[in-house]
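Supplementary Methods S3. Complex input for the MGD-bound model.
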Amino acid sequence: MKQIRTTCAYCGVGCGIRAEVTGERSVTIKGDAEHPANFGRLCSKGTHLGETVSLDGRLLHPMIGERQAGWDEALDMVADKMRDCIERHGPDSVALYVSGQLLTEDYYAANKLMKGFVGSANIDTNSRLCMASAVAAHNRAFAEDVVPVTYEDLDDADLILLVGSNTAWCHPVIWQRIEAAREARGTKIVVIDPRRTETAEQADLHVPVVPDGDVALFNALLAEMGCRGLVGEHALPRPLPQAGGENGGVSVETFATLADLVAAHPRMVTVFSMGANQSVAGTDKGNAIINLHLATGRINAPGMGPFSMTGQPNAMGGREVGGLANMLASHLGFSDQERADVAAFWQAPRMCAGPGLKAVDLFRAVHEGRVKFLWVMATNPAVSMPDAGFVREALARCETVVVSDVIADTDTAKFAHVRLPALAWGEKDGTVTNSERRVSRQRALFDAPGDSRADWAIVAQVAQRMGFAGFDWANAAAVFREYAAMTSLAVKHDKVLDLTDVAGISDADYDAMQPFLWGGRHPMAGRAMKIVPVEARTRLADPAFPLRLNTGRYRDQWHTMTRTGLSPTLAQHRREPLLEVHPDDAAAAGVLDGALARVISASGASIFRASVTDAQAAGQVFVPMHWTDAMASGGRGNLLPDQSVDPVSGQPGFKNNACRIEPVASDWRAFLVQRDNVAPPGLVWWSRSAIAGGWLYELAGDGAVDADALLPAGQRIEAVDMARGMRRLAVLGDDGALKAALYVTRRGQLPAREWISGQLGTAGAALPELLAARPSTPAPDRGPVVCVCHGIGAMEIMAVAEKGAGTVAEVGKACGAGTNCGSCRPAIARMLREWNEACVEPAQ
Ligand SMILES: Nc1nc2c(c(=O)[nH]1)N[C@H]1C(S)=C(S)[C@@H](COP(=O)(O)OP(=O)(O)OC[C@H]3O[C@@H](n4cnc5c(=O)[nH]c(N)nc54)[C@H](O)[C@@H]3O)O[C@H]1N2
Ligand SMILES: Nc1nc2c(c(=O)[nH]1)N[C@H]1C(S)=C(S)[C@@H](COP(=O)(O)OP(=O)(O)OC[C@H]3O[C@@H](n4cnc5c(=O)[nH]c(N)nc54)[C@H](O)[C@@H]3O)O[C@H]1N2
Ligand code: SF4
Ligand SMILES: [Mo]
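Predicted complex, serialized as structure tokens:
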């Protein structure tokens, strides 16, 4: 057995992992107790990484159309098409759309090829959808894209403001670190978010700002701190924000409580993520936050500073090497001197002249035929871009689409002329930089499957075929050394970024590299910083679309689900894409809890299952971003947002779009359990989720139920329960094991999914029980699973609560829930609070 230290595949926390390889494609995952990002902790996604390393659905060979090809043929084709396009239409007719899920080495190679050799800066990254506003705010305030704090500042803070961040779900290990600070020093936690998220429920104060009310709120806070004498005269922005004016729709009482907390706690960190960045005012939000810190002097000392939390594992690394179309590599811009320095360093024959197209403009250029060759790496824009219907049209029109991915059939791959198989997490080798600027190694655990190759190597091989010199790296270490050496240019231009120390690192030292931080703990100390006055803007209401549409993430799914969607454990948290809607808005639209509803915007429409909840404010709805055509016929959140972007950063305003909702009727509802993943035809709606050994489909349809179309071949047994208005069908394989089961109702309730799902593939399936839809001696109903690590349900948690377990820790002691990764602890805390409230309610 091999023990290998590596870094988690998912979020920007950048947790260290100790992986124990237990077989050809199996691995046990544990947190690395020595890694300074997580000190051994892992969340649910990191903990269950082992469930996503199978080769199911992998792209293992280069494909030209639907034909398997050799590497030589595929690479020649990509190089020829690219060269031909440049010759016929100029360098700007070529574009790369890359990703914060590439390693720094991959990113460096792609950026060098485009900006120095193709001669166009038309390389943008999905970080445009994610971090671009924070980058722009940093550049405006600090003259460089630098995060001025580290995780240690969270440990040392007395007050943490979380702005547009569902930390407990999206950066769970940071959340646990924040909770530890609360435990250790009584740190106060404030969540500024229009939704009452699980993070907000755990906070000392939830500030339900109106969508995009943040600039007004932070300006009001700044003015209030001015009134309280906490802002030095020299530090006040001009024009001065007005005290007592509009403050983001927050009540006077809540604003006063917030202002008191801010005034009382100089050691304050403001964490911000997508609720801040993904806005048409995202850059201004970032600067409004930074302004408060600068004006009150809360920066460059322990426990204080603005903290933009990165999303993807290597969002930060991509920013270092110039993955964004508006930056050169090594934090450099496009001045003549900077361009000349980069050109000299690369010996670049064709240095790009200026910034390239940002993601939304890039796909518009593809749509209009100005970009004719597009190479997409490690991102799924057919799902994740705003106005995804338009993006699909653009991909369909593009002369040449090349997709490098690890999965064969992503929604984007359907448009590819050439698909290139990349190494996945667990196979690739290189570095990533996390939210606090810490560089860590990802290391290979397994051999490369099939023909797959490292992304940087694929880029280098295409570059060499195009006749470019400077791409003959022997390994990832060589790419890293070149990048590290290049940061001497950043130093020359007075930037903080400096990796020159490791520019001469040997292959062996690269292999053994320990996590390290660039820039130190407070890199802006002693440097010039600027307050950038920003003003609140409001969006005009559209009576045809009276609701505000907010979008975001679920705790246990990662983006477009190409990997987490494979995990039966992770699927338990949320099996379906939900429309979360306030009771008043649901009632007004005639939408019922648990029924289907359509969300409609000016750009598109999609169907979700409604979840009526007062965690949503009236007038606002929320849908997840994760579901794709591969996972459901609806739930496609990104058909809805329009193409509007922040004027400075070009980042789309994913969190505040206009929409309306309406109920969706169907004659019948059903669920189907089966081994194979085959999308059911001709239904009103379907959605699937992983279970052990197969898939659980939720279905809704009109007219007759076409069981032949839904069920696989095999021995079929059927029962009709007239009393309950339910039809039940089971299909057995030749081995007698359950191959599929279908339960249909026109009016009644469907049986519990869990037991039936568990029967899939079991030999000698108990037919009478299956047709009765429950075991002859039923186990006690455990309710929906809350703790996915230990498979503990809500009813079991309530049972121990009833017996006296009053805290999350006591629940853990009594039944084990929440004692492994801890991602479910906020959910348990909420259950306990709701239970307590129910207990103390006065008798009527
Ligand atoms: N489980 C999971 N974790 C992830 C990811 C994942 O896919 N799944 N992805 C990773 C990536 S790439 C990213 S970028 C991060 C994102 O991490 P987060 O930013 O925490 O995630 P989101 O759910 O996109 O949005 C956060 C919150 O912003 C709120 N919000 C919406 N509008 C506003 C507003 O106008 N003002 C304020 N103040 N808040 C608003 C939303 O209600 C939402 O709760 O997560 C990373 N971690
Ligand atoms: N409505 C709405 N839309 C959003 C957001 C939102 O909050 N709301 N958030 C936005 C944000 S912050 C982000 S970061 C994006 C994320 O959106 P995407 O980047 O589109 O999402 P992923 O599913 O992570 O796509 C990664 C792709 O790369 C593949 N892949 C994984 N590892 C590798 C590798 O090593 N090499 C290669 N070549 N491929 C690999 C995966 O199989 C997958 O197809 O979505 C954005 N879209
Ligand atoms: S918080 Fe979770 S998803 Fe993020 S890096 Fe750590 S283990 Fe991975
Ligand atoms: Mo992101």
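The longest strand covers residues 16-23. The chain is about 30% helix and 20% strand.
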